[in-house]
Write a structure and sequence with these properties.
By secondary structure, the protein is of the alpha+beta class. Helices cover about 15% and strands about 25% of the residues. The longest helix is centred in the last third of the chain and has 18 residues, at about 290-310. The radius of gyration is 17 Å and the shape is globular. The relative contact order is 0.25. Residues about 1-75 and about 265-280 have low confidence and may be disordered.
């Protein structure tokens, strides 16, 4: 959607955001993607696990975030990586075995209100157009109305971010950003917590290995009504993003008449589990909120991380 991301490393660099259409903050939590088990151990360069409150930015607002320009940071040149605070940045640096001439990102997400997963329109009526693209497990491709491909940095007018090319000399990394938002005024009557769970996967859309998933990053956005929102990086993993993810992509393609390159989805291998350090980092970061707000946000994100560790993998 219209969201922006910022890379991991601590050194601020360029910026990239995706303009969008509605104004809202996205609360994310790893609970929905249940593939975090595979998210395993820290990937080189996946050091910080920051969370932060969302902030406006970019040229336009989209229900869940912005597309446009947002600050980002340098990321170690090692396959899939993600990071940032407020704005989440995803990057995939081609590896020696990659053959893609068009590396893009596909982002699948799930929304939850007060701990219950629901279709997009339940938390924001302006996203009702995504309901028909939502699986029975409540996963759907994160896209803006009118888009034809499921890619975040694809070829639609609203897509943004650099497409990667493993065949270029030197290879070109793929990158994009996302900045979710959800104003208090958007909460349905009687609800008080919103959680967005995201899985962002690097995918080969062209070249001799077209159809291959290289790896993915899991992250979340949580928003308690009347309190600051927060984002959290869950982890990264090489290879296949899982059946829940691919089912959502297949449903989008079927509904929108889009055909993915053949042979994909087998992924390339394994990576590590998220180490215990993530819990500590998230807890430390949440401590900054302090008091009851810290406890509430911490509970939301903690639940999300636990859930993501067991669902999307499929």
């Amino acid at each position: 959607m219209f969201q922006s991301r910022s890379p991991f490393s601590p050194t601020p660099t360029a910026s990239m955001v995706r303009p969008s259409a509605a104004s809202r903050n996205d609360a994310i939590s790893p609970a929905s993607f249940g593939a975090v088990d595979a998210l395993g151990a820290d990937v080189p360069g996946y050091g910080d696990v920051p969370l932060s409150s969302r902030r406006p930015g970019g040229s336009g607002w989209h229900a869940r975030g912005l597309r446009g320009n947002a600050s980002s940071f340098d990321i170690p040149a090692k396959a899939i990586s993600a990071g940032g605070s407020g704005t989440i940045a995803n990057r995939y640096t081609p590896e020696a075995s990659d053959k893609s001439t068009k590396i893009v990102f596909i982002q699948v997400m799930r929304e939850s209100l007060d701990g219950a997963a629901a279709k997009p329109s339940a938390s924001d009526p302006s996203f009702a157009y995504q309901d028909s693209d939502t699986t029975s497990d409540m996963y759907h491709v994160d896209y803006v109305s009118g888009e034809k491909d499921p890619y975040y940095n694809g070829d639609d007018a609203n897509d943004f971010g650099a497409q990667g090319n493993a065949a270029a000399k030197p290879p070109v990394a793929a990158s994009t950003t996302d900045t979710p938002r959800y104003p208090d005024a958007t909460f349905p009557v009687g609800t008080s917590t919103l959680l967005y769970e995201f899985r962002t996967a690097a995918f080969s859309a062209a070249g001799s290995d077209a159809g291959t998933y290289y790896g993915y990053a899991d992250w979340t956005y949580a928003k308690p009504k009347g309190s600051p929102d927060a984002t959290a990086i869950v982890g990264t993993k090489a290879g296949d993003p899982g059946s829940n993810f691919k089912d959502a992509v297949a449903l989008f393609c079927s509904n929108h008449g889009f055909t993915l390159p053949p042979g994909g989805g087998l992924g390339r291998g394994t990576s590590a589990l998220i180490g215990a350090g993530i819990g500590g980092a998230v807890g430390a970061a949440l401590g900054a909120f302090g008091g009851p707000v810290g406890a509430l946000v911490g509970g939301l994100i903690g639940a999300g991380v636990g859930a993501i560790a067991g669902a999307i993998a499929g």
